[in-house]
Amino acid sequence: MEWTIQELAARAGVTSRTLRHYDSVGLLPPSRVGENGYRYYNPAAVARLQRILLMRQLGMGLPAIAKVLADEVDTAEGLRAHITALEEERARIERRIRAVRHTLEALEAGAEPRMDVMLSGFNDRYKDEVVSRWGERAYQVSNDWWHGKTLDQQLAWKKDTDDLVAAWVAAAKAGVPPTSDRAQALAARHVRWLSAIPGTPTAEGDRERSIAMVRGLGDMYVDDPRFAGMYDDEAGAAFVRDALHAYARTHM
User: Fold this and answer.
1) Is the pTM of this model over 0.85?
2) Does the residue 114 lie in any domain?
3) Pair 131, 246 in one domain
4) Could you tell me if 201 and 139 are in contact, meaning their C-beta atoms sit under 8 angstroms apart?
5) How many distinct structural domains can be found in the chain?
6) CA 6, CA 65: separation in Å to the nearest integer?
7) pLDDT per residue as tens digits for the range 149-160
């Protein structure tokens, strides 16, 4: 099966002049040239044009495209690489769509859009730490889960989180021991909160890594200055840490 240059141009959404230019720079020669001077393109040439157009859409210039194609040994591997690049681009576009949708929802609800809701993911600020502790997949899955929520769902989640923190602060101020029923009930609630986040070890039922995560979070609440004041003071953060450690030790 072959297509003429006019047929290929029409199918590909480009001009015949573009295809002739690709030929002149050695990027896409026709499969053959007929006695009448017509250029013809077979399936292999069409597949090559597909690659060229994909790379053009990704912002690559013709010299760079020519180098990629010249250096390429395995066409199938090259196509797999392009699929990966396209999937990454799709993910970026979907994140932008969700961000704009959040803004629209806020405006339609008569609320002033909040920058932290519109532009921040669930754990964007802690990406490096999440990746180093629990891996790239844990970050990506949880971040996609957060960005997939509507504005109302994000605000509801933030409220639940604030309520949990407030309950910890109240228990610390009441002076109950970290191993008390009240503190351990809060620790169990904290672990359920973690388990609701896809990608985390607690959500996936990985016992050993879940224990490490719960203990690690407890330590982080005390040691990391970013959490200073989250639980009112250092004593409050230490109370949460000790309660989580005790829960991990006896209930996980």
Assistant:
1) no
2) no
3) yes
4) no
5) 2
6) 23
7) 777 787 788 889
